[in-house]
Amino acid sequence: MLYWFSEKRQLQKSLTTTAFLPSFHNFHYSDASCKNTAGSSTGKKMETLSLRPANYEDLEEEWLFVQAMPEDENGLTNRWHAISREEFEKTALPDMIRYAKGIGLPDWMVPETFYFLWKDEKIIGQFRIRHYLNDSLRDGAGHIGQFIAKEYRGKGYGTAGLRLTLEEARRIVPEDEIYLRVNKDNPASLHVMLKNNGTIVAEDESHYFVRIKKFGA
Question: Could you give phi then psi for residue 170, rounded to 5 degrees?
């Protein structure tokens, strides 16, 4: 059962339709929370984060990242865990690109673009945008799935990555709000959503349901 809220929920201080083709240019973001000590007299070096859709030019790095992702973590599934490089090139990457174009999808699936979050020249996360909602997504996982590699968590990369993903989602999805869902035992991801102007609108036994305005905070 879903429990809906009429007022905005604030994060407690204790919580630290046709297919739309993705654009193939980078989105860059710099934030004080994503700074790295350079070890020089200048003190700090700003990092560059970019979001790139799945593509053949980045195949090697994409494969290394995807095969290392867990099969299921906090509701984000990865059916290509431990996949070989050969199979990734032959089946997984073509499927990702096909999904973004909405080609050959089963009836229950909507077009979905896979994005990789890059820190300079290294992939540190994956974000997914489902181009529009069907009944299952509207009451379930929503528009966006997100994953940050464990060694990069708690450093602001999830917040920055979602911000970049929202820029793309606002260009793609037709709904007035971006729908997200998060497990109740995953306060870090909830924090990321609320930092990006998310509002908790409902909950069930295991999840919070979050909305982010498409335009305007």
Answer: -65, -25
Domain of 112, CATH number, reads 3.40.630
7 burial class (0-12, 13-18, 19+ CB within 10 angstroms)? exposed
Q: Please check whether residue 48 lies inside any domain of the structure.
A: yes
Q: Is the pTM of this model over 0.85?
A: no
Beta-carbon contacts of 208 under 8 Å, excluding residues fewer than 6 positions away, are 181, 182, 184, 190, 200, 202
Question: Is the per-residue pLDDT at 9 higher than 80?
Answer: no
Number of domains in the chain: 1
The answer to whether 142 and 72 have CB atoms below 8 angstroms apart is: no
Residue range of the domain that includes 126: 22-180
Q: What is the pLDDT of residues 15-66, one digit of tens each?
A: 333 344 454 445 444 444 444 333 334 455 678 999 999 999 999 999 999 9
Give dist(CA 193, CA 138) in Å, integer. 17
